[in-house]
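[#protein-structures] MJ: dropping 15-hydroxyprostaglandin dehydrogenase [NAD(+)] here for a structure pass
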Amino acid sequence: MDLNGKVALVTGSAQGLGRAFVEILLKNGAKVSLLDVNVPKGEELKAVFDQTYGPEQTIFIPCDVTSEVQLKDAFHKTKEKFGKLDIVCNNAGIANEQDWEKTITVNLNGVIRGTYLAMEIMKQQKEGGVIVNTASVAGLEPLTLMPVYTATKHGIIGFTRAMATASTICKSGVRLNALCPAFVQTNLLDSVIDDDQLAGVVKTMTIDIMKRIGPLNVSEVAEAFLQLVTDESKNGAIMKIEKQGGANYVQFQFNTELKTAPK
Ligand SMILES: NC(=O)c1ccc[n+]([C@@H]2O[C@H](COP(=O)([O-])OP(=O)(O)OC[C@H]3O[C@@H](n4cnc5c(N)ncnc54)[C@H](O)[C@@H]3O)[C@@H](O)[C@H]2O)c1
Ligand SMILES: CCCCC[C@H](O)CC\C=C/C=C/C=C/[C@@H](O)[C@@H](O)CCCC(=O)O
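AK: finished. structure tokens for 15-hydroxyprostaglandin dehydrogenase [NAD(+)]:
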């Protein structure tokens, strides 16, 4: 898929991975709608991108992905502004085991609702579209320090795979894939390391593992994201990204995916 002239929407895009995904889309000629609950950071970032790419290439929409009204409104505003929607990345996520219900609402409900809204718009377009959901290696292997975060990321992978198969069967023209990075150097990672509520041997173990394998930087993950967006042969693919092993597609024991991308 050539990204020139394509329209994308990225949730949780004011910093970290979301910001890097926006930037790689812009560099490749797409127009991007930036959604984030952090309004000052989102506005500041839009101003930075305006300098490099021009004000017409992006729009910033304040949006909490846990709000059905705000998320719907943001999708519709994006379509109104740019005339179509080709690429959606449901990326917003938090790692808060104390407020575990909020973690489920942001990480899982936000991704599910974002996927449904994207499907609704894209399946009406002749060219279809692509949805990339940000999961984590914690969606493939348990992260003992963060059981609820682990559950949400397993949920994203199961949901994305099921929807991808359904999309092929229904010939909706929409591809759905998920991205599973290992530890990445962002504020989310720092917030877990600095969280005094998380203590003890499991935290020490996790930090040791993190130090041993080393954190990815956001641009390494953005390159893998670009591959998932542009490779039109992949639907239902789950991509794991590690510092040492790089980006690889996950092979599941019970593979229910239909082999072809939706037509
Ligand atoms: N950093 C890592 O180690 C790592 C590894 C694998 C996966 N991930 C996943 O990548 C995604 C991005 O994480 P990050 O590391 O860039 O974190 P980050 O904290 O740097 O950025 C997250 C962004 O999401 C926004 N956000 C949070 N709640 C929101 C809400 N309710 N509505 C809209 N926006 C919201 C924040 O304001 C922020 O801009 C998350 O889904 C995270 O689980 C992160
Ligand atoms: C703690 C930081 C929170 C950031 C969460 C990110 O999504 C990154 C998650 C990345 C990797 C997860 C790896 C899980 C690995 C386990 O299967 C195992 O190798 C680790 C064993 C230790 C344990 O039981 O937790």
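MJ: nice. The chain has a mean pLDDT of 95.
AK: one more thing. The two ends are 14 Å apart (CA to CA).
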